[in-house]
Structure formats: C-alpha cells, structure tokens
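Q: Structure tokens for this one, please.
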Amino acid sequence: MTSFVDSPIDPTLDTPLYWQLYHHLRAAILAGRLKQGMKLPSTRALADQLHVSRNTVLNAYEQLIAEGYLESMEASGTFVASVLPEQLLTTPARPALSNRQPDVRQPRLSKIGQAFLTAPAPIAPPPIASSDKPRAFRTGLPAFDAFPFDLWAKTIARQARHATGNALVYQDSAGYRPLREAIADHITVTRRVRCTADQIIIVAGSQGGLDLVARLLLNPGDAVWLEDPGYPGARGAFLGVGAQLVPVPVDQEGLMVNVGMARCPEARLVYLTPSHQFPLGVTMSLARRLAVLAWAKHAGAYILEDDYDSEYRFAGHALAALQGLDEAHCVIYSGTFSKVLFPALRLGYLVLPPPLVDVFLAARRFIDIHPPLLEQTALTAFISEGHFGRHLRRMRTLYAERRGALLSAMADLPLEIYASETGMHCVGWLPPGLDDQTVTRQAARHDVEVTPLSKFSITPMTRQGLLLGYAGIDESQIAAGARRLADALRLAGD
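A: Here is the predicted structure, written as tokens:
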C-alpha cells in the first residue's frame, strides 16, 4: 500500500492542507498506486499518521467522494471507486505541489473586459474588522456607531418570519412595488423629484444604476461628459462599454457647461453630481442647471443625475433636484441608501423618463431578473414606520457636529479647508509645492487615511488637495487624527 506518511503535505505552502492531501490521493489513484476497490485508512487513523487534524482528512475524502474518486460504504469504510469517472482515464497525473506557480494561460478578453482592467476603481475601502473603528479621515462611510442596528435586525427578522409563499417566487423586475412607492413619496417631498412608482427601478446601489445606464444608452465610441475631477465609478462604467470620455472642468458653480459644449457638443450623455459635486463639494448653480438642460434637449442627450448624499444638508434649503426642472424627459435620477444607511445594503434606485422604462425593465430581466426581496421589504417597513426619517434627522445633527469638530481641529493645519453645507466630507487644499500622493503616503504612516484629489482627476490638477471624511468617526478621533495629520504634513514638506 502507498505510504500515506510520506504524503507531501507542507504546512508552509499557501495551499490548504486538505487540498494538498486531495491532490496527492487523486494523483495516486490516477497513477494506479491506489488500486480500484482498495480500502483507505479511516479519517482518524490517517490524521494520526500525517499529524494533521481529522477535519483535514475528512475534507479531502469528501471532495474525492464528490468527484467520484472514492466511495464510502456505511460500517465498512472508504474505498477507491470501483468504476472511475470516464474523464479520469485520460487525465494525466498532476505533478506534486510546489511553491513554483504553474504556467497560466492568459485570458482572452473582450474589448469591454480589457477596458475594465484599465478603468479606475470605485472608492471601496477595505473591510473593517468588527473590533476596529474606521480610521480618520476615511471617506464614504456613515456613522456606524449611531446606526440603529438592533432595530434594523428586528425589522429584517420580522419580515423573514412573516414571508409567505409569494416571497419565494420570481418578483417584479422593477423591484418591490411598496418600496418604490415609498421612495417616490420621499423624494417628491424632500428633493422635488417629479415621478411615480412606475418610473422607479430598484438597482444594486448607484453603481448598479450606472452600469445599467451605460449598457443601454451608450454605443462604443459615444461621447460622455464627465465632471473633472469626478467619481471614478462613473468613469469605469462608461469605459466598460467603450465610451469616449470628455473631461469637463468644475468651478464654484459646478460643471462648466460652456466648456463641454465647446469640446464635444454632440455628446450622448453627461454624468453629474449637481447637489454636492463629488469630490469638490460645490453645488451646481441654477444658471448652470438650466444651461445643461437646454443643451441636452437640443443635442438629444441624456443627463444622469447622481444625488448620492444630498439628504445631509446642514443649513439653508437645497436646490431642487435637476430632474424636477426637466421638461424634455432627458434626466435620469439616481439615488442610493449606501450613504444614508450602510454601504453593504446595496440598494439604490433609478427614476427613469417614461419612454425609457420598458427597455430598462426588458434588460433587467436578462441581467439579474430582480433584486433580492427580503432587504427591500425590510427597508419598506423601515421607511413606512418612520424610522428612516428619524434616522436622517439624527444624522444631520450628528454630522453637523462632526463637521464643526473637523473645522476646529484643522484650524492650525497648513490646509485651506472647503467644507460645503452638504454631505459627509470636505476638501483640504494643500499649499503650493506639496504633492497629494506624497502626503497620503506619509499620512498612512501616521495611521491617518486621506484620499488624494488627484485620484479623481482625468487631466492634471493645477492645485492638489485631500479628501477628508468626517461622518464615520467621532470627535475624539477627529481631534487625534488632525494631530497626526499635522505631523504627516510637516514631514511631507521637509
């Protein structure tokens, strides 16, 4: 019998032990060293021989049984299969595992696949361990310490308990209708969006909406205006369908529409964050809004309005959503619950002009049919029972306090802070001569997480700066982070 003690199991390899044992046994069967019908040692006996856990052997045996290499007979033991699968007869034995990586065939990608590889990644911070807190000054994260997790968990559990058979069958491709009705009621009042539930389609966050718009409205080579600097997730979605990107600069009034018209008057689509421009934080003026609407109507173009965090306005009244000013059915309004609740929820929505509804629903049926139902029903209850509105009011107060704390903590730093009255982050403009990438690396060494503005720009920026998130960290973290950032800035300037 083959010596299992000599099995080449190496705990220093990255490959799991059970997978190494699986490959060793499979190779022995293919080479005939383990004969068909041969009985193998018990899992406990083999584990003792190899000085590994019994689970390691059990997992290897189960994988081989599942693939037809072994047979398990109750009260008798485990045997090499008497009839091997046909593919085994022609499969050569694999060489022993080693640290050397085998030659890997390069994938043959479509042009779209290649475009995704070169596109900038959306902002997606690494996961946070349950025992850790977000670092100052990570962007894009809401205040997890103030989220009513117990209430949300009870809502999810209640919806699961009360689910009927109707919840187990295929659902409406547009999404759960009561949720769409609740969203329509909410944004009609808070954002002055003009819509009905029939115009709303639930998507997997704003990125899911971007992907759907790009697929259905753009052909390869079509031109798209993009705010510059702007959101990398939009850039990636449009590059992924082969669109031609037209960077349009942003000033204190938002997208410079006249520059876009001069550079590419025939563009097919424009992507905007007019309520709180990402990343600079400015609000698009009414004059610019009317100008871009007039251009879109004349050019037969669409406007994708991403209203990602306008729920958080701390002073005054926000301008109505661009969609509410649209008379030509050219604006697609995008909203998300990632910033107002939590990113892992992955629920967002598109408000479509009526002529686009049917084609978006037809495409949705071929992409993922519909979003999962349980989270939608829970979110509907969360909204209809008033929890959502109360949470928003609490977060507006909390974020205003944290914004104030950040402004105070940054007062003595060599940064020019621009903190708009909306959102969850601010911009810290660097003094001349400081490179934002260098500062970012130095900040990381001081356990501070900032984001360089140059990361969001297609064309070189005349002035560099940092994106500073404040929503997800408390006032003590803000103060401590500011002190560490001051040290990082001093060293970066030396």
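A few notes: The CA atoms of residues 176 and 376 lie 6 Å apart. The domain at 17-89 is CATH 1.10.10.10 (Arc Repressor Mutant, subunit A).
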